[in-house]
Amino acid sequence: GQQLNQSPQSMFIQEGEDVSMNCTSSSIFNTWLWYKQDPGEGPVLLIALYKAGELTSNGRLTAQFGITRKDSFLNISASIPSDVGIYFCAERHPAGKLIFGTGTRLQVFP
Amino acid sequence: DVKVTQSSRYLVKRTGEKVFLECVQDMDHENMFWYRQDPGLGLRLIYFSYDVKMKEKGDIPEGYSVSREKKERFSLILESASTNQTSMYLCASSQGGLAGPSSTDTQYFGPGTRLTVL
Fold first, then answer.
1. Do residue A96 and residue B92 have CB atoms under 8 angstroms apart?
2. Residue B39: how many CB atoms within 10 A of its CB?
3. How close A83 gets to chain B, by Cα (Å)?
């Protein structure tokens, strides 16, 4: 089946640092999604990207849909403790299913 | 706000038991989904449904079945639980429509049920 490779697998950073993570696909899709899962909760949608080259921000978060349509990047600027969690990229299959990446676990130290 | 609730946050069962995981959404969504989440593997789709009494297999349906008798409720059933089904189970719903799952639908997730099979 389709695979989404997400990296890095985990990150340990200090408060105030910037964070960057990415996701690559073996296939071309039309939608990239970024979700965050807080500890003990279900994932929540952060950003949705719909066209190649699109750059979208949501507060301190910025995500980009790669030109090749096979990758996407999520950046978090000036991290804070509540940024802790697992970040997932996802692609939306035409039938409505989501295909998720393996996740990036973020830890932020004060 | 969309609310997706799952019947239990934590569940411990024995090998061979029949297990029911319940999910309820209160936004009149057409589509509902069951995923399992395992470290290093992300979320994998087990089954989904885009209408009452309709079900579609996801990527890992083996060992599971589902039931959708009412629009707001989607149940995941483990007929005979096994230790390799120990996992976090997440339910989600999305608005959908008459044409089935829409490509612009946002999925809303419940808090998850952590199932341990001994």
1. no
2. 12
3. 18
